[in-house]
Every structure is written in C-alpha cells, then in structure tokens.
C-alpha cells in the first residue's frame, strides 16, 4: 500500500512544480501524510478562540516535546477544512519510536509462524455452513508464535517491512501512550500537572484526539492493496441482516484491540447460552398456559370460590370480597407459577454453572490466541496511569523492577478510601429511603384505589383491560420506582467517577475494577431492591385481622400490604416487565436522540473529503464506553437469574434483545464512533466475580412449596382438591376492630355472615390456640428451607462435577502454550549463540589474536552459551 501510493504520487509530482507540492492532494481520503509514505497514527484537532494566545503556547510546547520524543508532525490549515476553522495535526511514529516503546511496553510480536494445526472441523459441517463467514474474514492474519519485542534483537523477529510490522492498532496504542505522558511546559519548569493529552482536551487546548479509520465503511479503499478492515466489519458484522452469522472476533480484535474484542466474544457467548434458557422458559410458560389446576377451578367456581368471603385488604376503604373475583389474576399467576417453575429454577441454577464454567474455557482459548496470558502482570507493573504519576509526588523503590516509582502514602490512601466508602453508603442509603417512600406510596394509594374501584368484583374496564386496586397500585408504583432508578443512576454515575478519580488508582486495570465494583453495588441495590421487597417482604409481615402490622405504627394508618389474591409472583412479574422493558426503551431512546443530534453532515460524507474530517464528525468513544455496555448486560443477567421463578419468559426476551444488541453495538462502533485507541484486556475483569454472585429466591416467592406440602402431607389421596380451603384461615368478623372495618358494605354482604377468610395458616376462633400458627405453617417453612438447602447442594455438586469434567483450560491450548514456551527458549538460545559467534568473528578480524588467546575466548564463549 505504501509503495503503490508513493509511486502514484511521485508520478504526479513529476509534472508539478516543487512549490505546489504541499498544495497537491489528489486524494485526501487517505491515512498517509502528503508524501504518501508516512502513515497517520493519530490526529489532534483544535480551533482558534478568545484564549488563543495561552492555548497556542500550550500547543507549541506540547508539539515541541512530541518532536523531541521522535514523533513527526504535519498540520492541515483551517482553510483546507470544511468548516474553515478547524486545524488538524497529524502525527506519525517512525520506526525508531515504535521500536523503543514496543520494548518499553513489552508488546508481543511474531518470531515464527505457528506449526500447530487448528482443531478439526466438527462433523456435519454443512449444517453450520450458513452461519459461517469467509475464512479471510474470520482469520485476517496467520497464526504466529510471539515474544515480547526487544529493540536490541530486531533480527530475532519476523520483520519483512518495518512500515507494516506493527499493525495500526499497535501503532495508535503506542502513540497514545506517548501523548498521555508528554508534558506541555517548558524545559526547566516543574509543573507536573501540565502533562498529557487528557488535560489538554479538558482545558480546550485541543478539541479532539483520535486514530483514523482505515477507510469508509460503505466502500472499500480506493487502492486494492490498502486495508479495508472497516468495510469488511460493516459488511459481515455490523448489518442486522447478519444477525444469524458468527462474529469475526479475530478481525474485531485486530482492528479495535483485545479489550473490545473480548467484550463481543463474551456477549456472543452469553447470547448463545441464552438460547437454551429461553427454550426451557418457553416450555414452562406453555405448560402453565395449557394446564388448569384444580385449585384454580375451585377459585373460579361460583359454589366454592363464590361462597368464600375474604377479609378486607385495607382499613375502612376496602370492602369484604369474594374469592372468585380473583379468578383472572389466579389464572395469570398460574402461567408463571406452576410445577414447571420449580424444574425451570433448578435448570437455571445448572445453566448458570455451565455458563460460567464453559466461558472460562472460551476465555482461556482467547487469552492464548490473543497473547494475553501474561498481560495482567505486565499492566500492573508497567502501565501506570498518568494521573497517578502527576498527583503522587512521593517516590519509593519498587522491589520488582528495582526502580524508583511514585506511590500514595498509607494515610492519604486510607482517608480517600474512607471518604469514598462514606459516599457510596450515603447513596445506597438514599436508594433505601426512596424504596421506603415507594412502599409508603403503595400503602397509601392502595386504599385510594380501593375507594374508587370499591369492589374487586366490580372491575372497571380501561382500554380493554381489567384493573383491580392491587394491579393499579403495583403498576403505578413500578413506574414511579423506574423513574427514581433512572434519576439516581444519572447522578450517581458522575459521583462514582468523581470518587474513583479521588482515590487515584495506580493502573488502568485497578481504576476500572474499582469503578466497576462501585457502580454495580449501586446498580444492584437500585434495580433489585424493589424486586426483593416484593419477593421477600411483601405479604410476609401483614399480621391477621384484629392484629394487623403497620409500617410506622398504628398512628400512621399505613397497614402493610398483602399479596395480590393470585399471589405475590404476578406482582413481581409486573415489576420486572416494567423495569426491564423500561430500561431498554430508555437506553434505545437516548441512543436515537444522541444519534439524531450528531447526524448533521454525517449522511453526506463526500462533504468531508479528508479521512480526518470524516472521522472528526463522528462520536468520541470514551474510556468508560465498554463499562456501560457490560453494566447493562450484567444487570440483565441478574434479572433472568435472581428472579427466574417470577418470569420464565425473561430469558427469551433477553435473547431477542441481545441479538439486536450485538448488531447495534457493532453498527455504532463501525459507523458512528471514531476509532478507539486499541487497548488490551485479559478477561472481562471484575464482571467475572460479579457474575459468580448468583442467588435463587424461588422457594420464598413461589406458591408451589405449600401446594406440595398439602399434596404429600395432608391430602395425598384426594389430590389438590380442597387446597384453597386449606390455605385460608378463618376469622370472626365480630372481633375485627372498628378502625379495620369497611365504611361501606355491598348488597351481597349478609349480616348473617359471621366469619371471613384470609391467607395464612392459623388456628380458627374457638380453638385453644386461637389465631396462632398451625403445624402446617411450620411444615411449609421447613419445606422451603429444605428446598433451598437441597437446591444449593444440587447446584454445588453439579458445579463441582462440571468443573472436574470440563477443565478451565482446553488440552490443545495447554499443548500449544507449552510448545510456544519451548520454542521461545530454543530459538533464543540459538539466537544468542549465533550472535556471540558473529561478535567473536568480528573481533578476530579486527584484532588478530594469538592462538592461545583465541582458544581462551572460544572456551569463554562456549561456557557462557552453556
């Protein structure tokens, strides 16, 4: 590419005067300097403004220091830009700079073509053929054995062309490393805070800093020999019509770097595994749809459910009601809470284990193939954040490198940590306070809705749907809770970044891990607390008629709410649907608004002829861009695992969302974002440990355990007939206090009705243990605890078995890794021997020695080699 472009430009220059050379730009859609030889590794843009003189001084010093580092610069005048006000500074890193910093950063480069064959294709390959991509897209470069680059051993590596030896992703990574550490103060000054491109961007000295895409995404590069990787990514990966195709992970890694590559590898694997969970959840839902339990028949039966009078659900405003009024909600609850729910929850426990274990294998393979095995240690030791170097003036000896390095004193570290922890605790407490406020709203509004609707039997039809006080309360409270979640997220995201910056983490990995833990801890409480309330607390501390429990005491008149007559599970389903769908709608709406706002001029890229102008109008991909992508998926993962019993269709909805999410993210990276600075990541980081923290709540949210206890312990011969009557306790209406009695009574209510029923297991009036828990209550509680213990042990045994059967590192990866280590030692040994021989020969030619001294030198050389 370099040779052809250089030759083409040279041919045109032969007919042009030298004075017009700088003005001659036959093709500005290029990734090279005007000479057509030097590649543009990075671009900085800036404009003149009111503070121009001060910013000009900063730019002058910064660019001078860049040139001292060996970088080559070329400026495009504002008169050549489309807006007539933006300057573009193009940066090229020559071979000497690349080699120096590749040695500093210990970047692995090839020294021998790999001779280890790839794994054989699976049988019946023709079945997977429609899902496969062309080989040159899946494997854009051959496999090599690699070794950290050393400038003093350049002849050890496979260097055929110095201009193309380091790929563009490695080149822009090296240049950004220099930009992040280059000062912009004059020599002799000691203003340590005046360092790095990040500060120059924040104070407006430069408006943007980015590497270039290799070509337009909708068209190949004009020269057939130049790279067109962006075009290939768009054609085979970013279009939605490719949703059924495999992802070109090697090409993604080559173009964007390992960190982005491993995110898409994890997202693709997670989506593949969701397919099995979605199928099982759909089967469970269909089973609930087709089955019709005896207890639901009893509830809907006019003679059984219609003759059972239930106690009021709230004070004064709520009337007495008949059980058959809950026929619809009971049927809806049965769709999600049936015998298949227990099986599905156990299946999901095993699914989570398989997902995590198989991902470890997939991750280990990627770590080897992408040269990430030793990366974490290198990053901890070498890639110290510039902010840490600037703000930490104290130095001490590093025991590993034996060099002086900056450090943060223990006292300062503890003070910063305490302030950070206090801030996180404050915001979590704020979430809890908001949830308590929403609960208070539920208690107060339930009575208001009950006074409007009056009787659950007399439902009001609104837009074709029946609304009960419980449903109206649940839906409105869930919507309010969702709005609170979004508002708190908006503010806390900025607070989390601020306190993480205040802690001054030493490395980029440490910075991301700390921010990840803070954000997920907050998001976990923010998103799941309302769901945990419905699952664990709602309906558990209600009391019974005559002795109800109140939220803030009886004076508050906020009586703890009971579950929906069909059970709490249907309310948990409502909460999940509103929060999950609302979150996705919110994210995609913001994306559309943002894209529409930044679309000006993007649909007419021919208006921006130069490659740097085309990329300049794109959105910037921030350092935390992937963080929010991971966070969105992990929150979703929590919804489909923690609350699996309430909504078996959640994995199916998540599957459809993720299929779309992969292509939307791919489209954003390929068409809407500037090319990110390539960065490495060995794995998904702290998200791995977060995914391991999985719990199950089915035993305390499902109504299946009480049913099983009734079936096998109390009514084995008659089946489920009589379960409804057994699950309801009796209370004497005459004993209900005045402040609990309804203000109005319906026509169907007869004064001769002396008792009402409520959901609980208590002895009836007149019994010697009147209104205390029956033995069946304790049997059910023991059964729930036993189910939890058995389920945990089943999952533990399965996890242990799977971990034993499926090792974390595949055997072929172990073999390839050992062979690479062996070849590295062998090749290095032979290389050092040959180099010593050449040094000895050169020494003998330039300075003839006696035969005895020559023999001594040979003996020393052989001893050193051995």
From TrEMBL:
Keywords: Cell membrane, Glycoprotein, Membrane, Transmembrane, Transmembrane helix. It is found in: Cell membrane; Membrane. The keyword Glycoprotein applies. The chain crosses the membrane at residues 263-289, 340-359, 417-441, 471-492, 519-537, 634-656, 690-714, 785-806. Its main location: membrane. Residues 252-820 form the Anoctamin transmembrane domain. InterPro entries: Anoct_dimer (IPR032394), Anoctamin (IPR007632), Anoctamin_TM (IPR049452). Residues 32-249 form the Anoctamin dimerisation domain. GO terms for cellular component: plasma membrane. It is a multi-pass membrane protein. GO terms for molecular function: chloride channel activity; protein dimerization activity. It comes from the Eukaryota. The keyword Transmembrane helix applies. Belongs to the anoctamin family. This is Anoctamin. It comes from Cyclopterus lumpus.
């Amino acid at each position: 590419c370099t040779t052809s472009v250089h030759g083409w430009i040279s041919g045109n220059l032969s007919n042009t005067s030298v004075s017009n050379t700088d003005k001659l730009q036959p093709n500005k859609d290029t990734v090279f300097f005007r000479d057509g030889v030097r590649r543009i590794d990075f671009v900085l843009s800036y404009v003149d403004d009111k503070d121009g003189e001060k910013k000009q001084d900063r730019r002058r010093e910064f660019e001078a220091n860049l040139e001292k580092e060996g970088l080559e610069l070329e400026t495009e005048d504002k008169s050549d830009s489309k807006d007539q006000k933006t300057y573009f500074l193009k940066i090229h890193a020559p071979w000497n700079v690349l080699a120096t910093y590749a040695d500093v950063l210990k970047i692995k480069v090839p020294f021998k073509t790999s001779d280890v064959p790839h794994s054989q294709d699976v049988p019946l390959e023709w079945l997977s053929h429609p899902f496969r991509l062309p080989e040159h897209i899946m494997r854009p470069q051959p496999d090599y054995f690699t070794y950290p680059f050393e400038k003093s051993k350049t002849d050890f590596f496979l260097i055929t062309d110095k201009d193309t030896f380091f790929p563009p992703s490695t080149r822009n990574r090296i240049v950004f490393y220099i930009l992040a550490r280059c000062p912009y103060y004059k020599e002799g000054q000691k203003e340590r805070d005046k360092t790095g491109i990040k500060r120059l961007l924040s104070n407006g000295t430069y408006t943007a800093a980015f590497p270039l895409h290799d070509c337009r995404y909708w068209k190949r590069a004009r020269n057939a020999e130049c790279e067109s990787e962006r075009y290939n990514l768009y054609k085979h990966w970013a279009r939605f019509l490719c949703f059924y195709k495999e992802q070109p992970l090697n090409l993604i890694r080559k173009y964007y770097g390992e960190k982005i590559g491993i995110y898409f590898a994890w997202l693709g694997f997670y989506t593949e595994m969701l397919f099995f969970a979605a199928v099982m959840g759909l089967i469970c839902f269909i089973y609930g749809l087709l089955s019709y339990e005896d207890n639901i028949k009893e509830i809907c039966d006019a003679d059984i459910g219609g003759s059972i009078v239930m106690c009021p659900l709230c004070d004064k405003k709520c009337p007495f009601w008949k059980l058959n009024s809950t026929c619809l909600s009971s049927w809806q609850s049965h769709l999600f809470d049936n015998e298949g729910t227990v099986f599905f929850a156990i299946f999901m426990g095993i699914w989570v284990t398989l997902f995590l274990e198989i991902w470890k294998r997939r991750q280990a393979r990627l770590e080897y193939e992408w040269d990430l095995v030793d990366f974490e240690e290198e990053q901890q030791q070498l890639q110290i954040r510039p902010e840490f170097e600037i703000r930490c003036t104290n130095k001490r000896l590093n025991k590993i490198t034996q060099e002086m390095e900056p450090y943060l004193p223990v006292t300062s570290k503890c003070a910063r940590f305490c302030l950070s922890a206090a801030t996180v605790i404050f915001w979590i407490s704020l979430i809890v306070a908001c949830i308590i406020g929403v609960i208070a709203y539920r208690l107060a509004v339930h009575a208001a809705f009950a006074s409007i609707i009056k009787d659950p039997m007399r439902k009001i039809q609104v837009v074709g749907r029946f609304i009960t006080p419980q449903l109206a309360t649940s839906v409105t409270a869930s919507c309010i809770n969702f709005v609170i979640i979004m508002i708190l997220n908006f503010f806390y995201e900025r607070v989390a970044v601020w306190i993480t910056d205040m802690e001054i983490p030493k490395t980029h990995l440490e910075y991301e891990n700390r921010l990840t833990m803070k954000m997920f801890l907050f998001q976990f409480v923010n998103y799941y607390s309302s769901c945990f309330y419905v699952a664990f607390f709602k309906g558990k501390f209600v009391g019974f008629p005559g002795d109800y429990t109140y939220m803030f005491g009886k004076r508050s008149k906020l009586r703890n709410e009971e579950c929906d007559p069909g059970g709490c599970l249907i309310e948990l389903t409502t909460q999940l649907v509103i929060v999950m769908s609302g979150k996705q709608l919110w994210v995609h709406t913001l994306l559309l608004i943002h894209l529409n706002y930044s679309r000006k001029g993007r649909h007419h890229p021919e208006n921006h002829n130069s490659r740097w102008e085309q990329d300049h109008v794109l959105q910037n991909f921030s350092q935390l861009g992937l963080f929010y992508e991971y966070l969105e998926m992990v929150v979703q993962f929590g919804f489909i695992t923690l609350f699996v019993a309430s909504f078996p269709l959640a994995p199916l909805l998540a599957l459809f969302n993720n299929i779309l999410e992969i292509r939307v993210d791919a489209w954003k990276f390929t068409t809407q974002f500037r090319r990110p600075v390539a960065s490495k990541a060995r794995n998904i980081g702290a998200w791995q440990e977060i995914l391991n923290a999985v719990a199950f709540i089915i035993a305390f949210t499902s109504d299946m355990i009480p049913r099983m206890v009734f079936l096998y312990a109390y009514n084995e011969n008659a089946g489920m007939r009589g379960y409804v009557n057994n699950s309801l306790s009796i209370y004497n209406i005459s004993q209900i206090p005045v402040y609990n009695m309804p203000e109005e009574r319906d026509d169907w209510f007869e004064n001769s009705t002396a008792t009402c029923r409520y959901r609980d297991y208590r002895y009836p009036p007149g019994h010697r243990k009147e209104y205390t828990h029956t033995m069946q209550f304790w049997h059910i509680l023991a059964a729930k605890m036993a189910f939890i213990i058995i389920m945990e042990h089943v999952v533990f045994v399965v996890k242990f078995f799977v971990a034993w059967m499926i090792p974390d590192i595949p055997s072929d990866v172990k073999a390839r890794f050992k062979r690479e280590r062996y070849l590295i030692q062998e090749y290095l040994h032979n290389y050092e021997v040959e180099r010593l021989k050449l040094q000895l020969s050169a020494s003998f030619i330039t300075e003839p020695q006696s035969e005895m001294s020559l023999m001594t030198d040979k003996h020393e050389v052989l001893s050193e080699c051995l």
